[in-house]
Amino acid sequence: MLPADSPITTAVLGLVLAALLGVLIWNALRRDRIQYRRFRRLRSTRSRQRVFRTWLLQSLALFGGASIVVLLAAGGFAEPFLAEAALLWPVPLLSALPAGLAAALGIGLLVLLVGGTVLIVVLARRQGEITTVGDVGALLPRNRAELRWGALLSLNAGVVEELLFRLAVPALLFGLSGSALLACVASVALFGVLHLYQGVAGVLASTVLGAAFLLIYIATGSILWAMLVHALVDLRSLVLIPVVLNRVHEKE
């Protein structure tokens, strides 16, 4: 990790950021959009599973590998970022809550998540299809074999995307700018834009979720909580809803 007072630190961090943005934007505009358009036309479960496997390995290599590179360069800025970000609203407000009220708030959010899932299922049964935010319908598993990949992709996203977009990228941006606010806004915006293949609604939804995951990381001081919540949100979409609504676990 580069020391903050080294004369080459800014230059190296700038090069790392430029390389990271280039790879991520290329991946989002070229690979994701092209592959996803092709994926939506697939009907064979075997073909869909091959794409799921490819996406899983690519995500591990790209996001996981990028996380390692960025943290090697900017990992020393993670703690200072966290300390300054903890002073940004609404983190001090959350930290000042009594333990009982904070627990009640957490339970309330859980109830809201579960209630939202129930509402989605009820509406889907009435309309005859699953209601989604953004162009993600093709991703939903259709049978037991695909369901396993939905679970693996959800767990993978919870780990590698949080490592990169909540831990590594904010540290890198903070190391370059010295501003926790800029690091928060830019990292959340980047996370949202990279979901462009899901359409405008998908970008907006991903941006809101990214902000929520970042808030969890800053408020708790642990990336593990953000990983857990992210994985649960994705499992809700790619496992729970297909199982409850379409009973895909019973289909071969």
Separate helix tally: 9
Instruction: Provide the residue-averaged pLDDT.
Output: 86
Oligomer: single chain
- Straight-line distance between termini: 49 Å
Give the topology string: H per helix, E per strand. Answer: HHHHHHHHH
Global outline:
globular
Helix/strand structural class: mainly alpha
For the biggest sheet, the summary is: none
- State the share of residues found in helices, binned by percent: over 70%
Sheet-strand content, in percent, reads under 5%
Catalogue the unreliable spans. none
Number of domains: 1
Backbone CA Rg: 19 Å
Number of strands: 0
Task: Give the secondary structure arrangement, pairings included.
Elements (H helix, E strand, L loop, with lengths): L8 H32 L4 H30 L3 H8 L5 H5 L3 H29 L16 H34 L2 H14 L5 H22 L2 H24 L6
Helix pairs in contact: 1-2, 1-6, 2-6, 3-6, 3-7, 5-9, 6-7, 6-8, 6-9, 7-8, 8-9
